[in-house]
Amino acid sequence: MRVADARLFIIPFLLCLSGIVIAGCAQTSTRPGPPTAGPIIETLSPYSGPRGSGVTIKGGGFKSTQGTSTVTFNGLPAVVTRWSAKAIDAMAPVDATTGPVVVTVEARRSNEDRIFSVHDFTLSVTPARHAIQPGETATYTVTLEPVNGFNSSVALSVSANLPANTAAIFNPNPVESPYTSTLTIQTSTATPPGLSTPVILGQGGGQAHTNSVTLCLVGTAPVESSFDTRVMAARAADFDITPGSDGSGTPVADGSTREIRNVALTPGTYTLRLPRGGGAEAALLPFTVGCTCDLMLP
Hints:
The chain has 4 domains: 1-33, no CATH class; 40-118, Immunoglobulins (Immunoglobulin-like, Sandwich); 120-217, Immunoglobulins (Immunoglobulin-like), CATH 2.60.40.10; 229-289, no CATH class. Helix content is 5%, strand content 40%. It is built from 1 helix and 23 strands. Strands 2, 4, 5, 8, 9 and 10 form a 6-stranded mixed beta sheet that branches. The chain is rod-shaped and about 110 Å long. The termini are far apart.
């Protein structure tokens, strides 16, 4: 073969090996192209809101149509209402919690440093417990603390464990900023003695929270018509209380007031012995205990 003929054969052969297509050469390049960039989230609008609110996600690499791509809020899938290569409109899930928003396109996840904060609130009640007699009223203060810019109204109710023949009233209700309401629990003489734990429920802005309080309906208080009501009494360290006995105790100065509190008594009937000064006969006052919380006597 002549040199010139050899060159005509070798040069096209080398060009084919290099991946350049020429007439009579069927080989094409198999080199991989540059990697496709994954989705990038630049901004959220807004960065906080209630559950179920709309959020616009702006960035790039989202593709022009959604296809199998997804959006999640702190791991929960979101409903998408609009999708384009640079912007997505999505709804925060109804059970969303504060956390990163992530766009996934063709198995590639976006950055996770764009945080959506869900509006929320905490619910507290003071005091934690009340002890009253049937027919009396217990008052509690319900306080809500906004979290992450929460600004919705909240409806309050007693959702469970309210004693029979009892009314619960919140004022105001629903409650708005500054988020404080007074709960009045009004019992009646028909309300049975005993211990209950009313559950207070707050619902608003897609959130719901509960807190419970203790309500003790004690039994009958000591009654002794011949005993000076100014000295009539109340709480345990000053007097001996024993079932079915007169016990012993400390005399009460005329005009003073004593009370019985923090007495570990099981429900039942008891006798309270109140010694009188001047050698007078002690007063023996029967009473009943409806529950084992504090005794609150007049």
